[in-house]
Amino acid sequence: MAHKALVLCLGILSAASPVSASVQGPTQMSGAPEGTSGTKYCMHIEAITGSRIEEVKCWTRAEWAERGVDVDEDWAKEGVRTIG
Fold first, then answer.
1. What is the CA radius of gyration of the chain?
2. Which of 16, 24, 81, 82 is paired with 44 by a 20 to 30 Å CA distance?
């Protein structure tokens, strides 16, 4: 009898697992946060050749655009923080 109760409990737990796993966390932002023309957006940049150390640079949207970077496009994977 105890064996049947154990099997029943394990069956209930395994059935409930996918339900709890499907709960999503906070939604990811699409694009960088809004700011003024003076707001600096800090993002990871590629490591210099020969180094494994990844740098974080903070520039305004205009300064990123001069370097060919679309802040809204790259923010989700490279964004760190904003200043100002």
1. 23
2. 24
Average pLDDT, the chain: 75
Quote the tokens at residue 73: 């496009």
Q: pTM higher than 0.70 for the full model? A: no
Q: 79 - beta bridge partners? A: 43
Residue at token pair 């790259």? 74
Which residues partner with 57 through β-bridges? Answer: 43
Q: Which residue has the tokens 């707001």?
A: 39
Q: Which residues on adjacent β-strands are paired with residue 40?
A: 60, 83
